[in-house]
Design a protein that fits this description.
With 76 residues, the protein is mainly α. The protein has one domain. The protein has 5 helices and no strands. Helix 4 runs antiparallel to helix 5. The longest helix has 19 residues. It starts with a helix and ends with a helix.
Length: 76
């Protein structure tokens, strides 16, 4: 899986790389392709995507709808 190799070879902290491995095991190839397309092989895009997903996870865990709305709004 090319996207997984991209993540593993990135300079993301190990904790973030492990986070991605967990995420990728739950996704279909089509869903992974969306992430690949977004990052365009650029590590800066991967970092932004990682932070957004982590922030969404935290908002979900805290049942914080306002935080989730703000994250989604910033993505547009």
């Amino acid at each position: 899986m090319a996207f997984l190799e991209f993540i593993k070879s990135s300079t993301l902290p190990e904790k973030d790389k492990e986070f991605w491995v967990l995420i990728l095991t739950t996704l279909t190839e089509d869903q992974i392709k969306i992430f690949e397309d977004f990052t365009e092989g650029k590590e800066e895009n991967l970092k932004v995507l990682t932070e957004n997903i982590k922030a969404k996870e935290q908002a979900f865990r805290n049942s914080d709808e306002n935080a989730l709305e703000k994250i989604i709004s910033n993505e547009q």
